[in-house]
């Protein structure tokens, strides 16, 4: 720990984070690659922590990027095979996320440098479990004691740390490297940072200047106040009150199972997305019960019907037939391929019934044609029909108008895609980097061993990413 301080991997003073917040402590473990003796020491300490904990595993995987060389050192010294996890989910589509040799059922130990909320560790865990590996333990050099241990525990991962931040302060204080006043200042800063859920902010690489990309974000509450669209106003209010920007896509074929999921996951979501035409036992009773569950847990219902025909036809599809979607779905969506007539048709009943519509501006699937001018046209159509259109299905922010809500499907922790063209980004990528408002998660929750705990995790990850923005904190990735 003293060597880390010597080599400026841990610094004290006054550092301006990209958020503009003054921090008395600064971690940059990336520098250790420049000091072979320190690399050896850090790797040895991590290995000893695994031995002390008596963990057994078949392979190791470092969380990209800082922990990759650390894992490599351990692997070579201790003769334990290692895997590499790719970070670039989007461009790789369905290609391999995990490189190296492994067999399904192999146990993998995660190696990390610093843990704050645990999100990066969980992304790596998800990539590994997606390919059939078992992950039970993660070893970390430094635990910032900001909730990471608890978040990992929820997912059944034990965190073994070489050192916690409190202990680090004690060591440095004891060795006379910092005075007790500095230590107290850091403790106080971390306590208040925890209160406002300060994320893993890092000082600017360009000398501590506030990030140029930064823009003041309006909060959900402020946006609710700006909205005249009744459904958008209600949704922003729910997102604020429930501290959730998570939409659950409950793509199951049994109505009973859907209702059970709605009741179990309902407390953690702002929106439930359905595809009622895949239900094998749809009934009016199902609709009544779904509406009651939505009321009980305070979420809205979004039927993902993707209307795409002339106005007259979509109007009939909306109000009649077996499903009578307009009677119960607060929100529907539409392709813009037919032109504005599709919106005019739906809005005939949608507006008087105070329903909302999302236009499909972009899609998450590989090779989607909804790009460029098509997407621009969707924004124009939304602006011209804002009495009914409340936002977009998209993969990033399409307009700065705060009244429109951006919802992104194709969200999974650690997943890259499926075999049929779906492509995934993490909640943080979607919210912090791409600036969408609502993350839509389906199989990330449905296929989890513990869907309720996993939904909570997505809720936490999505909302934390939003708070990073609305607290005006840095969203640059390293
Ligand atoms: O571009 C899109 C638009 C939608 S609405 N890509 C999508 O995946 N969707 C829907 O979101 C899709 O129909 C499915 O219901 C959900 C994604 O599910 P997941 O299991 O891949 O998370």
TrEMBL record:
Q: Which GO terms describe its molecular function?
A: orotate phosphoribosyltransferase activity; orotidine-5'-phosphate decarboxylase activity
Its Enzyme Commission number(s) read 2.4.2.10, 4.1.1.23
Q: The Orotidine 5'-phosphate decarboxylase domain covers which part of the protein?
A: 245-458
Give the protein's biological function.
Bifunctional enzyme catalyzing the last two steps of de novo pyrimidine biosynthesis, orotate phosphoribosyltransferase (OPRT), which converts orotate to orotidine-5'-monophosphate (OMP), and orotidine-5'-monophosphate decarboxylase (ODC), the terminal enzymatic reaction that decarboxylates OMP to uridine monophosphate (UMP).
- The protein here is known as Uridine 5'-monophosphate synthase
Organism for this UniProt entry: Ridgeia piscesae (Tubeworm)
The record's listing under SMART domains reads:
OMPdecase (SM00934)
Keyword Chaperone carried by entry? no
| Secretion signal, residue range per the UniProt entry | none
Similarity remark: In the N-terminal section; belongs to the purine/pyrimidine phosphoribosyltransferase family. In the C-terminal section; belongs to the OMP decarboxylase family.
